[in-house]
Amino acid sequence: MDFPESDGFRTVFYKYYPAVRRKLAALVRDEAAADDLAQEVFLRLYRNPPDDPSVLGAWLHRVLTRIGYDYMAKKARERALQMRQERLMAVEPNPESNEDILLRRLGQEEVREWLDELPERDRQVLLLRYSGYSYAEIAERLQVRRPVVGTLIHRATARLKRYAEAQPQAE
C-alpha cells in the first residue's frame, strides 16, 4: 500500500481515525492520551503501511492494541515507582542532618563518660535497663531480688543526673 502525495493517506485517516481513537479511549480510559496514541497509530501507518490494503482494518487494530497496552504498562510502571518513592519518603520523612548526627554522637560520648564515673553496679543497672532488659532479667544478671531493681535504677539515674548537672555546659 502506497500513499502517493498523501491524498490516499488523508482518505484512510478520515475514514479510520474516529474508530481508532474511540477504541484507544475505551482501552486506556483517558481521552487526552487516546488522542496522542491515535496520532502515533497513524504515524506508524504513514511510515510503514501494510503491503495488502485489504488488511488495513486488522493492521490498525493490532497496532492500536499494541500501542494502548504499551501505554498502560508504562503508566503502571510510573505508578509503581511513585508508590515506592512515597513509601521511602514515609519511612524517613525528616532525614537526620549531619549536624544532628554529630550532636547525638557527642551526646552519647558525654553520657558514656558520665557512666564511667558511676559505681560499677549503677552503671550495669542503667546499661541493662536501657538495652531493653526487663526487671526480672536485670535481677537475675545482678543477682538481686526483683523488687530491688526499681530502686537501683532510680538511684543510679539520680546519681547520673546529679553528675551531669555538675558538669560545665559546652557552648
Features:
171 residues, mainly alpha
Would you mind describing this structure in some detail?
This protein is mainly alpha-helical and 171 residues long. The protein is built from 7 helices and no strands. It has helices spanning 7-28, 31-47, 56-91, 98-117, 120-130, 135-142, 146-166. α1 (7-28) runs antiparallel to α2. It is rod-shaped, with a radius of gyration of 37 Å. The mean pLDDT is 85.
Number of helices: 7
Strand tally is: 0
Would you list the SSEs in sequence order as H and E?
A: HHHHHHH
* Mean pLDDT metric: 85
Q: State the major sheet.
A: none
Task: Kindly name the structural category.
Answer: mainly alpha
**Overall form:** rod-shaped
Q: Which stretches of 5+ consecutive residues score pLDDT under 50?
A: none
Report the portion of residues in β strands.
under 5%
Radius of gyration: 37 Å
Question: What's the helical proportion of residues?
Answer: over 70%
End-to-end separation: 84 Å
Layout of secondary structure:
Elements: H1 7-28, H2 31-47, H3 56-91, H4 98-117, H5 120-130, H6 135-142, H7 146-166
